[in-house]
Specification:
Number of strands: 2
Strand order of the largest sheet: 1-2
Radius of gyration: 12 Å
Number of helices: 2
Oligomer: single chain
Distance between the termini: 30 Å
Helix content: 25-40%
């Protein structure tokens, strides 16, 4: 992983057991990319950022 990703992981706030992922509603594991999120959503956004993917609704 890159130094920026490592710093982001180290700085992530670990949340209480009842906190939900702001994207999908699953159990959040921390604050990733500025939002409380689960590991699945964290991985999706990490891949999107790495590959410069652009999504539109």
């Amino acid at each position: 992983s890159s130094p920026a990703e490592s710093a982001n992981m180290n700085a992530a706030n670990h949340l209480g057991a009842g906190t939900l992922c702001a994207i999908c509603g699953d159990r959040a594991t921390g604050k990733h990319y500025g939002a409380s999120s689960c590991d699945g959503c964290k991985g999706f956004f990490r891949r999107s950022v790495r590959k410069n993917h652009m999504y539109s609704c």
